[in-house]
Amino acid sequence: MLDKHLFLVGFMGVGKTTNGKKLAQILQRNFIDLDELFVAQEGMSITDYFKIHGEADFRKKERDILRQLGDKEPAVIATGGGAPCFFDNMEWMNENGITIYFQMPYQALAQRLAASKRQKRPLIQHLSEEELLDFITDRMAYRHPFYAKAAHHINVLELDMKQLVKQLGLLA
Ligand SMILES: Nc1ncnc2c1ncn2[C@@H]1O[C@H](COP(=O)(O)OP(=O)(O)O)[C@@H](O)[C@H]1O
Ligand SMILES: O=C(O)C1=C[C@@H](OP(=O)(O)O)[C@@H](O)[C@H](O)C1
Ligand SMILES: [Mg+2]
């Protein structure tokens, strides 16, 4: 396990970025956030990129940036919530590392997203908590089959990263 990337996948707000940093620290590896890399390379926020170029262009760039990671040393990589659901990104991640699907109940996800800085996430920035729940339910109907191709499925609502490391034998 240790000589491959670990790709964290799952819906917006499930904690890929926050937990990814912790996981990388525990495993003493580099941490890469696909969204942060996107912002650094394009020189603008994801919200601005969506406004100026639209989602279709975002997805193409996101795919290209993901592919750049193939020859980097093994890292913990937090993907954006949509990345696994476009092109053959999920197959590519499965070929180039270990994929871990972070899940939690939709209600908890809606609460968490409502409390977070929504302006950073263009797809949900104008939604109320109630609308968020409908949005999550709708999108997950489409997205879950992509996420479900991950090697490991983990409920992260009450899981800390030390437990995850043990559960998956990541330090073994
Ligand atoms: N274990 C946790 N408990 C409570 N809130 C959390 C936890 N992990 C993340 N959050 C919060 O949830 C929001 C989304 O987390 P984030 O890591 O950005 O998710 P993702 O990268 O999957 O979209 C943030 O506001 C973050 O502070
Ligand atoms: O689910 C999505 O389509 C998106 C998720 C975001 O990442 P997080 O999952 O880290 O919020 C970011 O890539 C962009 O706003 C689109
Ligand atoms: Mg994130």
UniProtKB/TrEMBL annotation:
EC top class named in words: transferase
Residue numbers binding Mg(2+): 17
Protein name: Shikimate kinase
Localisation: Cytoplasm
Biological or metabolic pathway of the protein: Metabolic intermediate biosynthesis; chorismate biosynthesis; chorismate from D-erythrose 4-phosphate and phosphoenolpyruvate: step 5/7
Keywords of the record: Amino-acid biosynthesis, Aromatic amino acid biosynthesis, ATP-binding, Cytoplasm, Kinase, Magnesium, Metal-binding, Nucleotide-binding, Transferase
Main location: cytoplasm
Stated family: Belongs to the shikimate kinase family.
Highest taxon in the source lineage: Bacteria
GO molecular function, one term: kinase activity
Cofactor: Mg(2+)
Protein role: Catalyzes the specific phosphorylation of the 3-hydroxyl group of shikimic acid using ATP as a cosubstrate.
Subunit structure: Monomer.
Pfam families named among the record's database cross-references: SKI
Keyword Amino-acid biosynthesis set for record: yes
Annotated substrate binding sites: 35, 59, 81, 143
Cofactor note: Binds 1 Mg(2+) ion per subunit.
EC number: 2.7.1.71
Catalytic activity: shikimate + ATP = 3-phosphoshikimate + ADP + H(+)
Chain residues that bind ATP: 13-18, 121
Name of encoding gene: aroK
